[in-house]
């Protein structure tokens, strides 16, 4: 069984440099819409049989072009939803870097619990459980391996990849997951193997940015070099 983990495209929260979290109505920017179309062109040639998506609007918009090309109806799965950042939701990134919890998120993610929200360990547990359960359901129904897509958010995808790579959650900030990138995990009886991660195809614009010292919740940090390409000045955004 093989899952393509698709990150949503650049959103209006990215360009505003805020932590979107589960805020309603966060749309894709024009750049994000272009990315969604480009992803559909890249993936439509594959024998994809199922699309699961976070129910948040930016993920729905990202998978829409692909779903239309494949003639599939996306399954909006609450377990793939963005982290509940609680009181941090909607706040500017520039403010959040001054919070004591910021350092915990960077170096001890497994112990990070957002005020009024959920912990990153909880996020990994629900996200990995969702992927494995969907895998089992598809395998039982088809009686064979199935290629499918799960569209989600930065921290969610990074937590799934950390599990597949056998990394402790405290190291998941070492994984980069850019907007509209794809990461591929193949699950077998012997365990998972990562075939690709943070693959943005021909779009290498993020490499022009100055390497940030730390990542924000969701894996993003403002970098001036990315602002013009619609990446909200973030290497990786929630």
Describe the model.
- With 238 residues, this protein is of the alpha/beta class.
- It has one domain: Rossmann fold.
- It has seven helices and six strands.
- A six-stranded mixed beta sheet has the order 3-2-4-1-5-6, sandwiched between helices.
- The two termini are 27 Å apart.
Residue fraction in strands: 15-25%
**What is the CATH architecture descriptor?**
3-Layer(aba) Sandwich
Task: Say which CATH homologous superfamily is assigned.
Answer: Phosphoglycerate mutase-like
Helices and strands, in order, run as EHHEHEHHHEHEE
| Low-confidence sequence ranges | 219-238
Find the CATH topology.
Rossmann fold
Structural domains: how many: 1
User: What's the number of helices?
Assistant: 7
Helical residue percent? Answer: 25-40%
Q: Mean pLDDT across all residues, rounded?
A: 88
Number of strands: 6
Q: What Rg is obtained from the alpha carbons, in whole angstroms?
A: 17 Å
Quote the distance from N terminus to C terminus. Answer: 27 Å
List the strand order in the largest sheet: 3-2-4-1-5-6
Determine and state the CATH class. Alpha Beta
Structural class: alpha/beta
Largest sheet: 6 strands, mixed
What overall geometry do the principal axes of the alpha carbons give? globular
Structure keywords:
Putative phosphomutase (TIGR03848 family); globular; 238 residues; disordered C terminus; alpha/beta; PGM_Phosphatase; His_PPase_superfam; six-stranded mixed beta sheet; His_Pase_superF_clade-1; Rossmann fold; phosphatase activity; 7 helices
């Amino acid at each position: 069984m093989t899952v393509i983990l698709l990150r949503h495209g650049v959103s209006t929260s990215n360009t505003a440099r805020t932590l979107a979290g589960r805020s309603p109505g966060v749309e894709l920017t024009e750049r994000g819409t272009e990315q969604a179309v480009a992803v559909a062109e890249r993936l439509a040639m594959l024998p994809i049989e199922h699309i699961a998506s976070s129910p948040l609007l930016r993920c729905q918009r990202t998978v829409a072009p692909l779903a239309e090309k494949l003639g599939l109806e996306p399954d909006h799965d609450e377990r793939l939803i963005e982290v509940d950042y609680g009181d941090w939701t909607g706040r500017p990134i520039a403010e959040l870097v001054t919070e004591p919890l910021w350092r915990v998120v960077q170096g001890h993610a497994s112990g990070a619990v957002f005020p009024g929200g959920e912990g990153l360990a909880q996020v990994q547990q629900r996200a990995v459980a969702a992927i494995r359960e969907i895998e089992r359901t598809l395998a039982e129904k088809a009686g064979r391996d199935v290629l499918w897509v799960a569209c989600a958010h930065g921290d969610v995808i990074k937590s799934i990849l950390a599990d597949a790579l056998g990394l402790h959650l405290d190291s998941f900030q070492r994984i980069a997951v850019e907007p509209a990138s794809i990461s591929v995990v193949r699950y077998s009886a012997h365990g998972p193997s990562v075939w690709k991660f943070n693959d943005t195809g021909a779009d290498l614009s993020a490499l022009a940015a100055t390497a940030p010292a730390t990542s924000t919740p969701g894996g993003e940090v403002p970098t001036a070099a990315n602002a013009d390409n619609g990446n909200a000045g973030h290497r990786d955004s929630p």
